[in-house]
Write a sequence for this structure.
DNA sequence: TTGATATGTGACTCATTAGTCACGTAACCT
DNA sequence: AGGTTACGTGACTAATGAGTCACATATCAA
């Protein structure tokens, strides 16, 4: 799970995920072409991090490699980590609402 | 939102959030004592990052500073980013189920 | 006021990361 | 075979991040 958080920290890597969300199964060069501000090697390094976190699954096809989005780790983070704080969010909203409807201070 | 992802990337910072989840409104020294592998200054740097991401809200009280957990940014990440991939997760499960119930290949 | 406590700042070191490049390998095509 | 396309590796540089320390400031308590 550490790898997932780490992978999601970089905006470029989130862009890669977005690109695969729009069109799944793109090749490395296809993806690299979308990032004009970076060389193919930079993109490949980001892909390695995403694969490490299992967020992207590589499928070799002859000389090309297709990258497929794997939403499972994201879902796990949502369930095992984020949902824990969701309850606090709800109670925070309730507290805010009570604060608004019954203000005690200026 | 970038700041939130960045803040969540570090395991120590997630531990800080966990500590505040267990007991909200702890002071800086209180939190620092929980991290024996690190000095107070290290913890303070992490707190700065968490405050920057608005994940932790500081409240000055005389010479002490109390840190309060703010689950709102986490919730926003869940809604605006993660939920987008949740649909893919569902369809992936459906595909997996279909693959299991009607296997075509060995 | 004096001493103790709680937090803050700036400069510094060390490790990690992002990104590039030269080069290498493997597959496709004719 | 020979050229071309697609991807991979290792070494390198520059930037960023983690962590520490000396020191400074503010507050409390007697």
């Amino acid at each position: 799970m550490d790898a997932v958080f780490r992978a999601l920290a970089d905006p470029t890597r989130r862009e890669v995920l977005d690109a695969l969300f729009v069109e799944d199964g793109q090749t490395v060069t296809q993806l690299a072409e979308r990032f004009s501000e970076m060389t193919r090697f930079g993109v490949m390094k980001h892909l390695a991090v995403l694969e490490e976190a299992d967020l992207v699954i590589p499928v070799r096809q002859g000389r090309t490699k297709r990258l497929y989005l794997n939403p499972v780790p994201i879902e796990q983070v949502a369930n095992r980590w984020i949902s824990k704080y969701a309850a606090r969010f709800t109670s925070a909203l309730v507290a805010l609402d009570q604060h608004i409807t019954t203000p005690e201070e200026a």
Observations:
- The first helix of chain A runs from residue 2 to 8.
- The beta strands of chain A are 26-27, 56-61, 64-69.
